[in-house]
């Protein structure tokens, strides 16, 4: 995926010499959380909408350079690194600089998310399975082996949660017999977080529970 095709430069960055009031008006027209600021054609950081609302309207942005956030990505960054930067900076806009630190434009979060939507993980039909195990006890190779040993294909996986030394892994598996895969994960001491209608283990437990309840009510 060539992310450089998604660089936006239709709206000129703010100049450090611009008045705060002008920046406030720009944010009124846009839905961005931040916006790039240049001083003498050099990128000096992003001003946040939350901050600019607190500044004196007649002063210039240069008076508040200390408040700028200097985050950016390079033109050749891959989409996962860009997405990580968005998450870390809590922004929906990401300035782009080339290797010589020249400002090239910015990425919008929605465009990068659309790239994720086009990956087989989301676009291909299949089953979502969420499992968890101790941080020191799991391995991606084991997870892949469990899936493939059941004649299924792994379309993607990622760590979706990690808490109290327990890691949660979300998998996308092609259309296959999910029940056999679920039972194999259980045999390898994985806890199954997601719910599946085809899960015979849970269905059997439910049937036995209902039978016991009827027996106790006799």
CATH topology of the largest domain: CBS-domain
Mean pLDDT: 88
Number of strands: 10
**Sheet with most strands:** 4 strands, antiparallel
**Major sheet: order of its strands?**
8-9-7-10
- Unreliable runs: none
Approximate shape: elongated
What's the tally of helices? 8
Protein name: CBS domain-containing protein
Organism: Aquimarina amphilecti
Domain CBS: 72-116
Q: Quick summary of this structure?
A:
With 218 residues, the protein is an alpha+beta fold.
Task: Give a written overview of the molecule.
The chain has 218 residues and is an alpha+beta fold. It has helices at 20-29, 49-52, 79-89, 109-117, 120-123, 140-148, 178-187, 200-216, and strands spanning 14-15, 34-39, 42-48, 73-74, 93-97, 103-108, 127-134, 154-163, 166-173, 191-192. It folds into two domains: 3-116, CBS-domain (Roll), CATH 3.10.580; 120-216, ACT domain (Alpha-Beta Plaits), CATH 3.30.70. 34% of the residues lie in helices and 26% in strands. The strands form three sheets. A four-stranded antiparallel sheet has the order 8-9-7-10. A three-stranded mixed sheet has the order 1-2-3. Strand 5 and strand 6 (103-108) form a beta hairpin. It is elongated, with a radius of gyration of 25 Å. The chain starts with 13 loop residues before the first strand and ends with a helix.
